[in-house]
Each structure stands twice: as structure tokens, then as C-alpha cells.
Amino acid sequence: MHRRIIVPSALAAALLLAVPITADAAGRGPSPRAGATPGAPGIGDSYYPASGNGGYDVSHYDLRLTYQPATDLLEGTATILATTTQDLSRFNLDLGLRAGEVRVNGRVAAFAASGEHELEITPAAPLKKDTPISVVVRYAGKPSEFKVGGWSAWQRTPDGGVAAQEPDAAAWWFPSNDHPRDKATFDVSVRVPDGTQAISNGVLVSQSSKLGWTRYNWRSDKPQATYLATLAIGRFDITTDVTANGLPVLNAYSKDLGANAGAARASVERSTEVAEWLESVFGPYPFSALGGYVPNVPSGFALETQTRPFYSPRQFANGSNVSVVVHELAHQWYGDSVSVADWKDIWINEGFARYSQWLWSEKEDEGTARELADYTYASRPADDPFWTVKPGDPGADDQFHAAVYDRGALALQALRDEIGDADFFAILKGWPKEHAYGNAHVSDFVRYAERVSGKPLAGLFDTWLYQPVKPGARAAAAAGLAAAPGAKTAKPVAPKSWRKIAATNSVHARDGR
User: Fold this and answer.
1) Side by side, which strands form the sheet with 132-141?
2) Least trusted range by pLDDT, from 142-146, 275-279, 337-341, 502-506
3) Into how many domains does the chain fold?
4) pLDDT tens digits, residue range 444-461?
5) How far is residue 118's CA from residue 128's CA, in Å, rounded to a whole number?
6) Fewer C-beta neighbours within 10 Å, C or N terminus of the chain?
7) Under the phi-then-psi rule, with left for phi > 0, alpha for psi from -120 to 50, and beta for the rest, what region is 103?
8) In this predicted model, what pLDDT tens digit does every residue of 280-294 receive, in sequence order?
């Protein structure tokens, strides 16, 4: 029998003020197991050392939530299934809201908040390495009041709220090991007042109403990074469909998008068409659901939240833009199925998503990938700071710089010219298949490309991804670029698709930071 506990709203204030437990139920601290040590407070990321945690690996999150749109109060019970990777005396979860009770393997555990988003948990007895564990956290809070370094992953809307941000988002609405290196499956159950909807990742497996409340139960059955988990609560117009392969499609649009509503629908409703085309480029779609959503938020970015990308209305302020849909759906292969092992590896997400836009432009007869590469290279002089950003390791401050996208796509055009179309497109399909639902470094891709092509490619990738200068005449000529230095060519003309592609340069900008 499954017993569920929903914290009554009347008790929420008490939970928010709860004093962290500091001993076990008998008033004694846990007796240490010989050799047991605390898990690391960070997973070891190069750019974000406080992200994620060490000592365990999560396999599943079960989130049972209640949300009040009028007050922005979120109450939750999270059940986390994990396996220890060391003998653990203590471990951390990432959570910005206030915990009221924690249990490990059914027993009350001590806990305390530290830093900006660390929940330190001390189980009643130390945990042995390679042991399955369950962690239950009861918590509550107002996500909009929680900020890290002055920015928030939670946006209030006129009728609710939205959790969508990169590289961190989970801490605003559930406790987690918040780093792409620790993926898990998800069940997300959200209770909201009747007339309000709750949108999340994956498949809507059930929906029920009782006593003025409606509960939505969502399931993501493939491994998912925590920042790719999303939650949107509000009033939406929802469209549903089924792909030719039988996948459920669900798109959602806030009812108050105003002048952007038509362009948003005209773009996102083409998600099935785009995904089917991307299958011809990257191989079979890796997940069990498809769609997108456009909430009424003031931000301007979009995000590849798994199976159901998030789009800000401003992405469609100048009319329909299918190119941004191509970008975010390309991430389902490059970024979601194959995720970064470290945030410095962001090129294996963004370079490929941008190049997919170039390929879509070619399909739509709005400029070939080569023409877009020519224009990108020729339109920026050698002294443009653009060329000082290294897409293969841009640094945390430039993680979403235009160079990671455009120069990152130039690297792929250079690779294509070096190894030929047959090997190039075999790599585009083979890479997400070989690393499906896993993580990878840029160096892993370089070795994979060398293996498939049979050519040494380290020098090519060093030139286009790691040197903080504009690649010179020889490298440009080798990449087939018509506007190599010294070439007598007319002023470059922007391909027809350039403006729409450039409009997506802010897709992952961290608004509000």
C-alpha cells in the first residue's frame, strides 16, 4: 500500500519555520561507521564547484507537490532513490526551499541548511558503499523568494509560476543532486486549484479532480538531467497529437500571450515536423514524448527542457521563428540524451544545435550551411572579441556567448569539409547513439570523430575550438570558406535565414542575473 502525505496548507507556515533536526529520534547523534566520510558538497564541475554533490548516484525522483498560484507557495514531498558510491557519514542535496523533515531508509535523519542551496543530511546510521537508499524530504517555500547570486530560475506569471533555467533550476522546486552528470527518471505529481494546469516533462499519465483541486501526474521514463526538469503552472491552451511513430505530442500556450500568441503557435505547432526531419540528421528521437510550451513570462530565452522545450514569448516578437524550435529540439539529442560531463563541455550542446539551424536553413532554401559559415567567418574582423572566446572551454562568464554557437558551428563545417559528407553525417547519427542517455566531454567527441573518419583531427579542433584568435587563411581555406583572409571577394551578403538564426542567440541567456 502506498501512503501519501500532503502537508495541509494551514500547516505550511509551521513547516517554513521548522527548526532543522539535529539528532535521531532518540536524541542521539549517529554512531560513525569505521571509514565512513561525508560526501563532497560539489560534484567537481570546473565552472560551478558548488553544483551537485558527491557520495551517491540518483536513479529516480518521485515529486509530490501542491502549489498555490495566488501566493506562490509550493509544498512538496520528494522521494529520492539512489545508490551510495562510498561509505557515507553525511551527504548533501541541493535545495533552496525550507526542509521540514528528512528520512533516510525510513528513519528520521538530522539535517541542516548551509551555503546558498545545500541541505546537509546525516542519516541515523552511516551508509555502506554500493547500497540502495531512499531519501524522503518534506519541504515548502515560495520559489520566487529564493535567489542565488541575485538571480532566480523561477519566474512568476500572472496565473502561476515556471521553473526553467540553465545551468541550475532544480533547487527552486525540489531537492536533488543538481548536475547533469547524475541523471535519473522522474515522476512529477502536482496538485493545483481547479482551472489551473500543471505542465512538466514526459507523458501525462493521469489527471484527477477532487474538492476544488486537480492533480496532474507526469512521467519521464528516460534518464534526465535535473536542470532539464521543468514545471509550469498556470492557465494554458493545450494542443495534443500523435506522431507517425506513435509518440504523444503536447504543446501548451498561456492564454494571455497577447500579440505573440499567433507567432508562437505557428512556430511550436511545427515541432512534430521538425523532430521528424531531425531524425533524418541525428537518428531516432530518443524520448517517449514531444512538445513545447510558451508561458507568459517576461524573459527572452528558450531552453531544451527534456521532451518539452520552454520558449519565452519574446522569441516570437518579430513573427514566427521555426529556427528556435529546431535549435531546442536538436538539443534533445545533443544536450539532453547526450549531456555535458562538465559545464566547460558546452560546445557539444550548442555547436550542434546551431549547426542544425544551418542545416534547416539549407532544407528551407534560405541559405546553405556553407553560405552561413562563409558569412559568419567573413562578417567578423580578426580584432573582434568574438574570436577570443574558445568554444571548447569558454569559461563560465562566456558559457553562452555567441562564439560558442557560431564559432562552434564553424568548427563543424570545418570538420565536414575535412572528412566529407559520408563520415560527417555518420558521426552526427552515431554519436548520440553511442552515448545515449549518458554524458561526454569535448575530447570524447574528438576521439569519436577520429575513429569514424580514420583521420587525425586534434589539430583541426584545436584551431576552431581552443585558439583565442580568428583562424587564419590556411585553416579557412581548408574549411572551404570562400572569404578566407586575402581573398578578393565582395562584401559578404547575409543569407535569408541569418536574421532568424541570429534572433535565437539569446536562447540560453540567463535573464535576471
Assistant:
1) 107-108, 98-104, 132-141, 73-84, 56-68, 184-193, 213-224, 203-210
2) 502-506
3) 2
4) 999 999 999 999 999 999
5) 22
6) N
7) beta
8) 999 999 999 999 999
The burial class, CB within 10 Å (0-12 / 13-18 / 19+), for 214 is: middle
Give the H or E element holding residue 436.
none
207 forms bridges with which residues in the sheet? 216
Q: How confident is the model at residue 268 (pLDDT cuts 50, 70, 90)?
A: very high
Q: Which of 21-35, 216-230, 382-396, 426-440 has the lowest mean pLDDT?
A: 21-35
Task: Give pLDDT, residue 486.
Answer: 55
> Which sign does the torsion angle of CA 222, 227, 228, 229 carry?
positive
Asked if 43 and 189 sit in the same domain, the reply is yes
Answer yes or no: is 251 within a domain: no
The CATH number given to whatever domain includes residue 397 is 1.10.390.10
- Cell numbers standing for residue 175: 531537492
448 vs 340: CA distance, rounded Å: 15
Would residue 17 count as lying in a domain?
no
- Please identify, among 189, 214, 234, the residue that sits at the C-terminal boundary of a domain: 234
Residue 135 lies in domain: 37-234
pTM: 0.92
Backbone angles phi, psi at 428, to 5 degrees: -60, -35
Q: What is the DSSP string of 458-495?
A: HHHHIIIII-SS---HHHHHHTT-TT-TT---PPP---
Does some domain include residue 4?
Answer: no
Could you tell me if 78 and 226 lie in one domain? yes
- What pLDDT was estimated at residue 16? 44
pLDDT over 70 for what percent of the chain? Answer: 90
Question: How many other CB atoms are there within 10 angstroms of residue 365's CB atom?
Answer: 9
pLDDT in tens, 403-422: 999 999 999 999 999 999 99
What is the number of other CB atoms lying within 10 angstroms of the CB of residue 32? 12
Question: What is the number of alpha carbons within 13 Å of residue 116 lying toward its C-beta?
Answer: 17
DSSP code per residue over 30-99: PPPPTT-EEPPSS---SS-TTSS-SSEEEEEEEEEEEEETTTTEEEEEEEEEEEESS-EEEEEEE--SEE
3-state SS, residue 322: helix
177-218 pLDDT per residue, tens: 999 999 999 999 999 999 999 999 999 999 999 999 999 999
Do 229 and 346 sit in the same domain of this protein? no
Of 289, 291, 361, 304, nearest to 335 by C-alpha is 304
Task: Report DSSP state, residue 319.
Answer: S
Compute the mean pLDDT over every residue in the chain, rounded to the nearest whole number.
92
- Identify whether 269 is part of a domain: no
Which residue among 234, 262, 288 closes a domain? 234
Write down the pLDDT at residue 239.
Answer: 98
Q: State the Rg of the chain over Cα.
A: 24
Let me know whether 47 and 193 are in one domain.
Answer: yes
Peptide bond before 32: cis, by omega within 30 degrees of 0? no
